[in-house]
Amino acid sequence: MTEDRPAVRVAIVGAGNIAGGCHMPAVQAQNGEATVIAVVDVDQERAKAFAAQWDIPAAYDDLRQMLREERPDLVIVCTPPIAHREAVTTCLDAGAWVWCEKPPTLSVAEYDAVSSHEREGGPYVSYVFQHRFGSAARALREQIRTGRLGAPLVGVCHTLWYRDDAYFDVPWRGKWETEGGGPTMGHGIHQMDLMLSLMGDWTEVRAAMGTLAREVETEDVSMAMVRFANGAMVSMVNSLLSARETSYLRFDFPEATVELSHLYGYDNSHWTWTPAPHRAKATPAEIGAPLDDEASSHAAQLRVLLRSLRAGQRPEASGDDGRRVLAFIAALYQSATTGRPVTPDMLTPDNPFYHSMCGRLGIAQDNAVKENTDV
Length: 375
What we know:
Blueprint: E1 8-13, H1 17-28, E2 34-40, H2 44-54, E3 59-60, H3 63-70, E4 74-77, H4 84-93, E5 97-100, H5 108-115, E6 125-127, H6 135-146, E7 154-162, H7 176-179, H8 183-186, H9 189-199, E8 202-210, E9 221-228, E10 233-239, E11 241-252, E12 256-262, E13 271-275, H10 298-311, H11 319-338, H12 352-355, H13 362-373
Parallel strand pairs: 1-2, 1-4, 2-3, 4-5, 5-6, 7-10
Antiparallel strand pairs: 7-11, 8-9, 9-10, 11-12, 12-13
Helix pairs in contact: 1-10, 5-11, 6-9, 9-11
């Protein structure tokens, strides 16, 4: 921060674990470029306790009141998914930029409705997809862009995590209407977003899902085979039943295989760069591994977002760039439900899966949500 550039004024909405565990440290890591000036929670006492813990000047239980009185530059939305739409649109209409936790919304229809509240030059809403922002992912994206490794051929995108029965005791979890989906929507979305941000446009998905071991409405496992416009084929698995947890991505090119094995975040040590046999003597750096080592994190994404805010430019993981993974998930659920392949052109407003991830709530639910949340 410089004397002629004051800190970006930030407000937090939702004083839960993700706000304290990820977002407050991310703001504090910005070297004075941002400062939290208020926190909002429907539970006034929880808001006050959060404010006291983090030395935040103001605590509210009413979002609109906070926006009127504090006029933040950026609002970080950490509410359960069902509350994203109302919180985000309220902030945008008040002139505040927004950074919203995943999943962005409960449906593609909601996402498009929220986007209509943005204005050219800002405010914009960006979504938390922090795995894009580590140095190794950025280096690989550049290798793919330039074709240095050849065209992508084969990929793997696995989110193999574990959540016990008690995890779903939280009332909004495991329900289509309030969480939007199971591990595909709420967990694997991070790895799938990273995969899609690297591989580009997809052209077809064939999927299956099941509720195998948890008492939930949604799936607890999904699998998919995906074709991409560049010709590559990728296998995907999303699970909450895997005792040995791992997040694993693999990219095979004519010149190399690049792998990422981590759990909830990575640095360069979690990546393996293996040259193809005809380049067996090449070092990782020679096939594209970065020299700088920035871990994936909320702090890394927030740093990029703050630059966009100051410049009045649409940030990454916003607009069509933020919509990509949500539309893909809707297509995955449609394929798993119908047993048929789904292509991007099928996800139109007359498709029930455009309006809800299970395809059963459909247009009626979207209209009901609109009536209850429009501001």
